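Checklist before submission:
- one chain only
- standard amino acids only
- sequence pasted in full

Submission:
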Amino acid sequence: ARLVVLLSLLGLAAGGKLLVVPADGSHWLSLREVLDVLQQKGHEIVVVAPAASLYIRPSKSYELKSYAVPLTLDGVKKELGAFLQIPFEEGSFLTRFFKAYEGLKRLGELTVHGCEWLLKDQELIRYLEESKFDALLTDPVSLCGLILAEHLSLPSVYFLRGVPCGLDFEATQCPRPLSYVPRDFSQHTDHMTFFQRVGNLLYEIPNFFLCDFGFQPFAKLASEFLHRDVTVLDLLRRGSVWLLRVEFVMDYP
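Returned file contents:
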């Protein structure tokens, strides 16, 4: 009798159908290893990515569905390379901040335009609607996957290093007190003097501007596509599972 019960539960453990909307670059390199293991465990995986991608290529581990974007592969490499060079440049806080501002703005525009082309691909969207996926896996550093998860009414799993401006902390209501957690560009550790803590407060101010121009276009795009007012935090809060890639040598506790 016990054997019959256990055998009847095998159907519940069957592999599911997973939609993956990745971010390109190093984000994809981490996610690709996860997809290989998921495929070995019997899951059916469909990856949606732009035709001009740095690393996303067809694989036996998943089915790749690509969509056209108005940018060549060389153009993608040039834009991403310029942005990734910024953290290694020396200079004052204001100099580095404005370089990061311009780089993030340009990269954000390209990401939003790419997402817009995906959402306008009616044939691909129709395929996704008819495929009956069980869940969506994405890196929320790009919000396109979150918009699709909302449109398809799918539970979403986030696989991420983090979201700029601490939006991941805000969306999950995770404490990140300025007295203990150093902000970007501050070069402080988690052990700060009183004046460093005061300075840390000032380093938080630019995040309000960075988030506004960096993510607000996604909120506008999502509102237009979903036909209702949506904020970035609304989208982030719908995540069912957050899988954070944290390295304690690199990240402050």
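Reviewer check: The radius of gyration is 20 Å.
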